[in-house]
Design goal:
By secondary structure, the protein is α+β, with helices and mostly antiparallel strands. 35% of the residues lie in helices and 27% in strands. The protein has a 4-stranded mixed β-sheet.
């Protein structure tokens, strides 16, 4: 899984990149075979002013055999925004993968065919 971090108006880019990559690898570890890339976009919506939710984190996950999934979270600081978006991303990836598994399970042929039993089958 490749992690790419993009920032706008946010300091400490190099250490932030390492921390974000480590956190996402841990958070999404059970889906590592299904995710090819995660793009993280951190921004400060009003750099000059402070506010309750002026930091925004948008994450996009590229999954194998699926359309990309995107989430965002606004927070008072970049840690809150990042962790909120990571939690949302984990839930949507899990939901998407589970739905795909359920769908493939339902599409399998049944051993029951129109309620007719095969009289030639060995009962043991």
């Amino acid at each position: 899984m490749q992690v790419q971090v993009n920032t706008t108006g946010v300091a400490n880019k190099e250490s932030l990149d390492r921390w974000a990559e480590d956190h996402l690898r841990e958070t999404l570890s059970r889906f590592r075979q299904d995710i090819t890339r995660v793009e993280v976009h951190l921004s400060d919506e009003n750099a000059e002013k402070s506010g309750n939710a002026d930091k925004r984190c948008t994450m996009e996950a590229r999954l194998v055999h699926h359309q990309p999934l995107a989430v965002h979270h606004d927070g008072g600081n970049q840690d809150e925004a990042f962790r909120g978006a990571a939690d949302k991303l984990k839930r949507i990836v899990e939901s998407t993968i589970e739905r795909a598994k359920d769908k493939s399970h339902r599409e399998r042929d049944s051993i029951r065919k129109d309620g007719v039993l095969d009289e030639t089958a060995d009962p043991s």
